[in-house]
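Per reviewer request, we include the raw input and output of the structure prediction for the construct analysed in the revised manuscript.
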Amino acid sequence: MADAVSIFKVKFKNYISSLKSTSYDEEHKEYLCNDESQKVFNFDLIIKDMYPQKQPASYDALLIQDKNIYCIEFKNEKYSNINKIKVHKKLINGKDVLNDIFTTNHIPSNEYNFIFCVAYKNTEARWRRGIEKNTIQFELEQYKGKYFDEIYTNDVQYFTNEYKKHFYEELQC
C-alpha cells in the first residue's frame, strides 16, 4: 500500500506551495497568512487541473504531516460574513476529491486522520463571541466523525497557536 506523503510528493510536486500563497485573497489583494516556511499542496490548483471544465468547491491548502491530513480553508473576512453554505460545499466536495485521490492511488485512508480547518480573519471583537469561539462554527459539527476526524473553525491567530502546539514551530500568520 502506498502512503499519502510519497504519492503527493511525486504526483503533485508541481502544486507545492506555501501557506502564504494559498491564503491569498484575490478580491482584496491581500494574504491572510504570511508564512512561507511551511510547504503545503495548493489544493485549489490540483482541483482546477483535475476538473478543467467545472471545478467542485475545494479548500485552499493540504498539509500532510505523517498520518495527519490537514485540509485548510482560508477566509479573509470576518466570522459573521462567512457564507456557511459555501464552507459546507468546500468541506464535502474537497473531501470527495481527496477520497478519489486516495482510492486511485491505493492509499488506505483509514490509516490517516483528516482534519478540516477554517482560518478566518482576526477581528477586534473576537472576545464578544466568548466561549463560542472554541466550538465548531458554521454548523460543521455534523461532519465530524463522518467526513473528518477533527474540525477547527477559528481566526488565523488560533490557527497559528494550534500549529505551534502540534508542530512545535512558529508560524508567521
